Amino acid sequence: MDNLKYFLKRLLQTIPILLGVCLIIFLLFHIVSGDPTHLILGKNATKQQMAELREQLGLNRHWFIQYLDVVKSAFTFDFGSSWATKQNIANMVKEGITPSLTLTLPAFIISTIFSLMLGVLVAYYRGGKVDRYVRVICICGMSIPSLSYILFFQWSLAYKLGWFDISGYDFGFPNFIPYIILPGIIWIILSIGPDVRFFRTVILDELYQDYVRTARAKGLNEVTVLFKHVLKNTLIPIITYVVIQLPYLILGALLLESFFSIPGLGGLILSALNNNDFPVLKAMAILSSIAIIIFSLITDFLYTLADPRVKLK
Amino acid sequence: MFLVLRSSLTWLLLIFVTASCAKKDDYSQKILYERIEQNVKGFDPIHSNDYYSSREVGKVYEGLLEFHYLKRPYTVTPNLAKEMPQVSKNGLTYTFKIIPGVLFHDDECFPGGIGRELVAEDFVYSFKRLADPKLVATGWWLFDEKIKGLNEWRNAQKDTAISDYSASIEGVKALDKYTLQFVLSKPFPQFLYGLAMSFSYVVPKEAVDKYGAEFINHPVGTGPFTLKVYSPQTNKIEYYKNKKFRDKFYPSEGEESDKANGLLADAGKKVPFLDKIVSYIMVEHNPAWLAILKGEIDEFKLPKDNLSQAITDMNGPTEELKSRGIEVVVERALDVTYSGFNTQFELFKNNPKLRQAMSHAYDAGTANELFYHNQGILAQTPIPPGIAGYDENYKNPNVGYDLEKAKKLLAEAGYPGGKGLPEITYDNLSDTLARQMAEFFSNSLAKIGVKIKPIFNTWPEMTKKIDRQSVQLFAISWIADYPDAENFLQLFYGPNASPGSNNSNFNDPAYNALFEKVSKMQDSKERTELYKKLARLGSEQLPWIFGVHRMNLRLKHSWLKNYKATEFKYGIEQYWDIDLEQKKLKKPQL
Asked: Can you identify the CATH homologous superfamily of domain A95-306?
């Protein structure tokens, strides 16, 4: 019952959040960007044509009416058509989610599992050689810009060795697999550094708790202490860290998608930014806000599963 | 723990092995692999106002005329028209005969899915679509106020719920099944160029009616290649040879050098030669560069970042390219780069000496070396080489690097050594090259004491500022819409001031009057001379600091045949061929 109440309360809270998001998007676009008609009509746009288009896009209406339009689209999910491409935005988003997720989801799962294992390992060997080497590797890995990894791996593994296609994507399983491996590997390499450092810190924090000393005093071996007691108690920060990243997976990987010609949502956002395509930017901002709200709700429920002492109120 | 790690690594290795099973090349068909630099805005001719979309539209759709593939200077030639039109003595009525028996692509929109015959009425319908205010066609500017009755029809549709396509228009009429007549409302010598551009390509009403808003993704044309459905979120577009394409033949005439270059070897042969085209949308240059080296794409435009890797100081291909059988093709761009003064800005308005001083302080030659590998031609007027009206012997007296003269003029303008001159803002785009060029520009001007403050913008921000006339000085370029000097000279025409194309807001009554006269004249020697005079008149008053007419460099593999550089790329792939034997021999095996 408490959970249901909590769920309804959070659901109600999404309304002002969404209204605020709509207001920010609206103000940003109207203050920063201004009139998009010249961009849409091109270099030969005439004054009359620009005025006609402004009228047709509803840009002449009172700002509050225009704001209400943004709010309406947030609650009906009817985002209309792209100004730049005339395409239906719902179709664009629908088609873009799959390529983005086929790249980001497997890479995210692998990198999280791998990093967690490494995090536990270095925590286990804290202060030792393994810990030092892994930390150095993580810091070095994090210090190199992501673009360098992309350029180097594309040149070495795809061009020189010919193990992968340089870029591209095919829709449908298993056609897409060959195309996501190389960007996936780069994603994993890019994620491991910060992930391992986070997991190591979380586990080490827990290792110095009183109950761990008690467990050791009772004669439990280190593996049991680590996996049965410590790991279980670190679940809450780990869940927070992992689940909060999930909405961003849907939004795709901007650079990776761009360099590997993966037609995901990252590329869609980039192209909308370049074209001042307000309807697409609006749709993506609203959808990502909703995704973040949903996943933070999921995080709260997962807390109750990970730790029965947590009550949602 | 180590066991888990070891098994993870084993899985990763397995994935590597699976992935490394390279795809086999297909030598059974002539397939062209090419790169598109940006997303395509769908396949509706009336919205194809960008380079990339118009090029893709040109593979599927066609117009009455086309730009001759080989002849230079650029000229138009019949395409769906049987011959060039009959033109009335007053130059206002154009009557076309259409080739009978031309078929639209097979599509579900037609009864039985079989493409029907193209008729003159299809052009009438397509022109109404271009004018329909509800569709906000980006190509409407081309025929705005040019065709008798079309603007009136357009205005009448503004207040109706559904546009009335049954109403007849005096200026676009089907006289019979195969005869089409245009009546212009005023002289428009560039009209025939307009008919070769993608905006005026013909579409069938059945497809528009069936697919509605989704027509943009269901191209149904008469062109040499077919495409079933376009997906807006794709990275690859695959076209197939139109098996029902009419008997159209490779041109038998061209420039003198074409025969020696092997460009007339296929003269008189039926086109298209290619079985399939695969167009990859590759936004980033680096993967495209690797792809051409690897032979995964057959041709592409060389990005400036890769210039030094591709061409030597002598402007030939590097050894690496030669060893891979990659050729460099120089393409003369019909364009001009410039830094425009906002001539309505108080500082520049009545101070020609200041503009002259700044013009002489800019070292365009060094900029050409630094940014264009010395491939550009220093501009003296807006008209580029290759267009009637370009005068290669003309030297603009107010253009050319001369620091001493610049300093003297600056003093005469009332700002000796730059004293008293406020800092001038210089709006630019924000990409790397634009930033480097802005840096060079401000350093050049600093040598005479003019302080320049570069401002970097996204394209939307930049157009907004220019439209509002809130810029002082700005870097921009103009690319020809059609190969006529009028398209460049209108950039100085007063009534075209921002948000029109005259973004320097230059306004000289003498220039305006001469432009109005010459823009109505048909092509003639007299008109060419007037173009030259007009270009000098405007350019010597320096609405701009002139940059260069650029040269584009394109790379192509030697197995790609019949490849000629052109600025008008609508449908050119129909003339290209792939030498499969040569490809088998030469494709790099890495």
From this structure: MetI-like (1.10.3720.10)
